[in-house]
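Need Lipoprotein's 3D structure for a figure. Predict it.
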Amino acid sequence: MVTWRAAVLLGLAALTMPLWSAPWWAAAIAVLAVLVVSGVDFALAAALRDVSLARAGDSTVRLGQSATVRLRVRNNGGRTLHADVRDAWVPSAGAVTGSGHVTVPPNSSVTLEAVLTPTRRGDRPAVRVTVRSHGPLGLAFRQRAGRPATPPWRVRVLPRFASRQLLPEKTARLRVLDGTTVARGRGQGTEFDALREYVIGDDVRSIDWRASARRSDVMVRTWRPERDRRVVCVLDTGRTSAVRIGDEPRLDAAMDAALLLATLATRAGDQVDLLAVDTAVRASVAGSGRQVLLARLVNALAPLQPALVETDFELVVGEVLRRERKRALIVLFTALEPGALGEGLLPVLPRLVARHKVIVAATHDPVLRELTTRRATTAAEVYASAAGHRALAERDRVAAALRRGGVEVVDAPATDFAGAVADAYLTLKAQARL
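Structure prediction for Lipoprotein:
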């Protein structure tokens, strides 16, 4: 195929037509000459079959950060490759590529870099690499679909996990609970650990009088927090998870809180499992070592997207009961909506509460609270305030119904949601109610 340069060359030849006695013959000769020169240029262009492509670089990146992927263009032929290279990615990958003109000598290679700043979670694949091989004069080029073959590559965009900044504070509370840090007294656990001799400062209520009589010395019981408990994070990926809370979907806020809870519970010695369910099980992660668990969690959560279907809470309860034979703490991340919970969750909730401790964790937009506290001066603001009061009243009714069923409810704005869920876990652990 010819380039715009051939058309420019033909146009310059057309300017000389008035100088010829036979313009039509002159035009035919000019066209023929341009075609011959373009054909020779096409023949001298490096063959695409001698070009190979390969990729290397980052395969994972956290949302909000940037990744670099390198594309290596190698010329295996005997002619110098003059080519235009276009590296295309999906729009949400936010790719800024080094696409452009390259010159590759025989048996050499060049590397182009693409910097990706994704705007969404999930897998962001490379779409296609197009190589256009030009001749030495730039009058003609070779281009063929599928040649050279595009090397497959995808970058997995992991959840943001902004709540990890709360980990030092929550871990400090956990250490106080464990008794390894003194803060207004010694931390008090809930499980018997060992007997030891009494020392000044011990709580006299911890004295074991029978052991003291046997040992002829004052012995006290030592305690430690509950360990080896099971914590199951259940993410509702149905239609309510698609609602945007602030600048992100509700599902992303739930993921952030689940990651914080899982990290904290693992450090506390508990085993963490995860389920993501709507009308089917979308993701399932079983507990393992601390670092391995977090890596598996973020990889499992990354491709999850809200499904515009009504969540099957019968399936949710059935899956939890089937997987968890022993008593566990079930943290269900969903929305406090009468339609979703009143008809779906409340009828099957007694089966779950009978065997497990259940927390329903829901987040709401802080704008709702602002609507109810803002002074209304116009009719539109009055109606907006009334709508905010009604929405919060409906949430309160659903929360009250859940509490009557023996469920702990965490209802917090998105900015405080992850911390509120972690606090609820620590409170239950301190009270030995897991």
